[in-house]
Amino acid sequence: MSLRTIVSLAIPTSVAVIAFLHAHAIGSLVDAAALPSAIAPFAEARAAVSTAGGTTSARSADAILDRNAFDHLTGPLRQSDAEAATGELDVHDPASAPPCDAVRAVASVRADDADESFAAFDVRGRRLLQKRGGELAADARVVYVAADRVWLEQRGVLCQARVFGGASPTPPPAPSASPMNGGAQPSALERELAGKIAKTGPNEFQIDRGAVDRILEAQAELMKTPLAPEKEGDRVVGFRLVRIRPGSVLAALGLETGDRLVSLNGIEVTSPERMLEAYAKLRSGTLDRLTIHVVRNGKPTNIDYVVR
């Protein structure tokens, strides 16, 4: 089964951890601090263009073109700076690029080779996967895939589509009085599921089957916990949970910040493709039990779940 086919399938009844891995399989997000590195290629490109433009050959034809000895009425043959800029993509300030029109980035997968990075898009109701340089429509081409957004060239203008974000971020609301006990308030999903996930023993949990579908509908909330690949040498050995908020769904399922996800019911999850493979195998039937193998504080640990 191809990656494109798996991504397009409807999500079946399963458990929240599978939904989390499936979401990250097409959107392995890293911490927001990585954003400057995502924009770096544009800065490098600008520097390269600037450097190239600042040097001319000793045998430059600029003087001849400016003089236009062939037709004094026409004027210089060389384009002005304004004319030369026409048709070229302006990448001077990618962070301030406007939101893309009718294109929403659903998720992104970063690769060491930027040309191999790809993203999933919703384009007027259609789900598409495309790599850097690929076309989404006649007027839209993928320019660069970052962790939390994708830059496109749309009708000759640079624009950005934020993962799960739609348009540019809105200003934060005016601060309100904080609760007396301090800390973040639980989301509607967390309040709804509070009594439907029970810890029955050390690293053992029971999940109410009726809560599973509700959890699966909230992949965007699960994606708030970023993953970071962990390597031993050149080999990815798992994905580390960068930050799990106390009281979140994943915290209720016994996962902790710093846990390295290694396998799911014995299936290694060492790449986005392997995550999708594990998801595809587990989705084929009704799931009653699930075992997540993690490395916690350097020690291998199993977390067992029973769905009732």
Separate helix tally: 10
Q: Pairing-aware structural class of the strands and helices?
A: alpha+beta
Under CATH, the topology of the largest domain can be stated as: Pdz3 Domain
Helix content: 25-40%
The major pleated sheet works out as: 8 strands, mixed
Radius of gyration: 25 Å
Name the poorly predicted regions: 1-15, 26-42, 44-60, 68-75, 77-86, 166-182
The CATH superfamily of the largest domain is known as PDZ domain
How many distinct folded domains? 2
| Beta strand count | 15
First-residue to last-residue Cα separation: 30 Å
**What spatial form do the alpha-carbon principal axes imply?**
globular
**Beta-strand percent range:** 25-35%
Summarize the structure in words:
The chain folds into two domains: 3-29 and 185-307, Roll (Pdz3 Domain); 33-46 and 83-162, SH3 type barrels (Roll). The protein has ten helices and 15 strands. It has helices at residues 3-8, 16-25, 35-53, 62-67, 81-85, 188-193, 209-216, 219-222, 249-252, 272-282, and strands spanning 103-109, 118-123, 126-131, 135-137, 140-145, 149-154, 157-162, 197-201, 204-207, 227-232, 235-241, 260-264, 267-268, 289-296, 299-307. The strands form three sheets. Strands 8, 9, 10, 11, 12, 13, 14 and 15 form an eight-stranded mixed sheet that branches. Strands 4-5-6-7 form a four-stranded antiparallel sheet, with no helix packed on it. It has a three-stranded antiparallel sheet with strand order 1-2-3.
